[in-house]
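Exam revision sheet. Question 4 asks you to relate a sequence to its structure. Input first:
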Amino acid sequence: MAKEIGFMQGRLSPLMDGKIQAFPWPYWRQEFALAAQHGFALMEWTLDQDRLYENPLMTRAGRQEIARLMEQYGVAVKTLTGDCFMQAPFYKAQGQVRQQLLADLQKVVQSCAVVGINKVLLPLVDNGRLENYQQEDDLVQTLSGMAPLLKDAGVQLMFESDYPPERLAAFLGRLPSPYFGLTYDVGNSAALGYQPEEEIDAYGPRILNVHVKDRLRGGGTVPLGEGDANIPTALKALWDAGYKGPYILQTARAQDGDHPGALCRYRDLVRNWLNQVDRHEP
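Answer key, structure tokens:
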């Protein structure tokens, strides 16, 4: 079983404006050094709509610096969470605003390709959730037309969704699998009351990335093992489905401010659960 355990950018840094997740503007460079110091070799980039084109990923000099830091510290960045697409979804916009948001998406894909990020997440949750079939049709038709761009860039688009398993599988079936897939979020599914075996049985082959966190049913993020997510069961179901991608820690923040210490504890928990799955292999 693949045991590539990474972390969501910002989880090694202090909170930004009290937010559990946001691009860590003052700390993004030092997170590479902290990651190496604490034994992490994989980071998932984050991108917000606010100051989008100031993000280092979106500038030539920034991309060069990202590449240098990855090489210097041995920390790879292969995936990106596009919170910007959730904060300003193109399929809920019209006219010039919509065209600019689509141009943003294309620029993000092209920028990711330059630094070696090959999977980009469009979260269909919260402000980005699909509210009706018209929005879903718009999303499917528009993104299907981007398949040539994705092919040239070597980038796959992934979704997170609050759809129940069968409906999510049907939605994914409308998009070609080489270019579109899913990020499976263990905590979000628990908050919605979904069962891991049922979900992964419905669309397991389309899962390209996994976010690991714990949440209360109908509630927010809590430390691993303190919520309603059955993480060992989810990991076993992923193993049974043949999942070989990364596990990204999108976990609760430390109450005492020791964010690296908390992240390391969560990493060790997940590693132990994955090892248990290995030991139970037939």
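Marking note for examiners. The mean pLDDT is 96.
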